[in-house]
Write a structure and sequence with these properties.
mainly alpha; two-stranded antiparallel sheet; globular
Length: 361
C-alpha cells in the first residue's frame, strides 16, 4: 500500500519500476533457460552490460537526490562509487587465496609482487562477506559524514562546494595510485574468481548479480521517493530554493544537508559494490574527475529532481557511449560535450521534462 501511495502521482516512476520488474524477470530467464540458437536468447555479455547500466542508474539517482532536491552539485560521487567497489574488491581478492598467480594463501598477488611481508591491518576482516558489506556502507558513509560536517558547518555552498568535492575525488585518485597504500596501485584489484563460493564466470552468478542490481535500483528509487515525498523532502526543496530563509525560520539546515548527503553517498557505494564484480576490475581511474562529471551529465540529460529521469539519463547516455565508442571511438568525448550543451540549451528540464510538460507539470 505504501508503494502504491508513493507512485500515485508518479507516472514516470511507476513506468520505470514496471519496466524494471519485467526486465528482471525476462532477462535472466532468456539467458539461462532459452537455448543459444534461439532468437529469444539473451547473451551473458548483454545481461552483464544491462547489469552495469542498472548500477549506473542507481548512482545517478543518488546524485539527483542531492542535486535535484537539495541543490548540492556534487562532483565527488564517483569517489563514493569507487570506495564501495574497493570494499567489495577487497573481499573478492581475499576469496582467491592460494589460487593466485603466486599461490600465497593470504596475500593478494600484487602484494607478493611488491614484496609485502604481511597483510595490512585494514585488509583484516574482508574475508567475511558481512564485514565487506558493512564496509561498503560505512566507508563512503563516514567519508561523506566527515566531509559534509566540515563543509556544511562552514556554510560552503554553490560552486565552491562543487570544487571541493572535485578536489576530494582527485586527492583520493592520487592516493590510490600509490603502491604503498595497499590497494593495488595503478593496476587496482582484478582476477576475481568467486562470490560467496559461486564462480563469477558462471552465467547463474552473473544472473544473480543482475537481479541484485535491479533490486537495489528499485529499493533505492523507492527510498529516495519516500524521502522526497515526506516532510523532509519538502524541507530539502525549501533549502534548495531559499536556504537563508529556511535557516532564519529556525531549521538547522546543516543537519538536513548532512543527513541527505550521507545517505546519497551510501547509495553510491552500494552501486559500486554491485558494479565491479560484473566488470571484473577496479582501479584508481574510477576516481578520475571526468567520471564524476559524467554522472552529473546523466542527471542533466534525464532531468533533475525527478529521480526516474536521472535513471533514464544514465541508461541513455551509457547506451550512447557503448554505441559511439565502437562506431566512432575518437569522437565520443565530443559527443558527450555536445549532448550536455544541447540538453542545457534546448531541454533545461532534461528529456523527461518533455513528458512532464505534456502532463502539465
Amino acid at each position: 500500500m505504501l508503494i502504491l501511495k508513493l507512485l500515485k502521482n508518479d507516472r514516470g516512476g511507476a513506468f520505470m519500476l514496471a519496466l524494471l520488474t519485467l526486465t528482471t524477470l525476462v532477462v535472466p530467464v532468456c539467458n539461462l533457460l532459452v537455448p543459444e540458437n534461439s532468437g529469444l536468447h539473451i547473451s551473458t555479455y548483454t545481461m552483464t552490460l544491462l547489469g552495469k547500466y542498472l548500477c549506473y542508474a542507481l548512482l545517478a539517482i543518488s546524485v539527483d537526490l542531492v542535486w535535484g532536491y537539495l541543490g548540492i552539485l556534487s562532483l565527488g560521487h564517483g569517489a563514493f562509487f569507487a570506495l564501495g567497489g574497493y570494499a567489495m574488491g577487497m573481499y573478492l581478492m581475499r576469496q582467491i587465496g592460494s589460487r593466485g598467480m603466486y599461490g600465497h594463501p593470504l596475500l593478494p598477488d600484487f602484494m607478493v609482487f611488491l614484496n609485502w611481508q604481511e597483510l595490512p591491518w585494514f585488509w583484516h576482516g574482508f574475508h567475511w562477506f558481512w564485514f565487506a558489506m558493512l564496509m561498503v556502507v560505512l566507508v563512503p558513509g563516514l567519508l561523506a559524514l566527515v566531509f559534509g560536517w566540515l563543509a556544511f558547518r562552514s556554510r560552503v555552498t554553490g560552486v565552491y562546494l562543487s570544487i571541493i568535492t572535485q578536489a576530494l575525488t582527485y586527492a583520493l585518485l592520487l592516493a590510490f595510485f600509490r603502491n604503498e597504500m595497499g590497494f593495488g596501485g595503478n593496476n587496482g584489484l582484478t582476477d576475481f574468481k568467486d562470490l560467496l563460493g559461486f564462480s563469477l564466470q558462471s552465467d547463474a552468478t552473473r544472473a544473480g548479480l543482475f537481479i541484485a542490481s535491479a533490486l537495489a535500483l528499485g529499493l533505492g528509487y523507492l527510498s529516495c521517493l519516500y524521502i522526497t515525498r515526506s516532510r523532509l523532502g519538502r524541507l530539502c526543496t525549501a533549502i534548495r530554493d531559499q536556504e537563508d530563509r529556511t535557516r532564519f525560520i529556525g531549521y538547522r539546515v546543516e543537519h538536513f544537508k548532512l543527513w541527505i548527503f550521507t545517505f546519497s553517498a551510501i547509495m553510491a557505494g552500494i552501486a559500486g559494490a554491485l558494479y565491479f564484480p560484473q566488470v571484473g576490475i577496479i582501479n584508481p581511474g574510477e576516481f578520475a574527475p571526468l567520471a564524476s562529471i559524467e554522472i552529473v551529465i546523466w542527471v542533466a540529460v534525464g532531468g533533475r529532481a525527478t529521480l526516474y529521469g536521472a535513471a533514464a539519463g544514465a541508461l541513455m547516455v551509457n547506451y550512447a557511449k557503448s554505441y559511439l565508442t565502437g562506431a566512432m571511438p575518437d569522437a565520443w568525448l565530443f559527443a558527450l560535450g555536445a549532448m550536455f550543451v544541447l540538453v542545457t540549451l534546448l531541454l533545461p528540464r532534461g528529456v523527461t521534462g518533455l513528458l512532464r510538460k505534456k502532463e502539465g507539470n
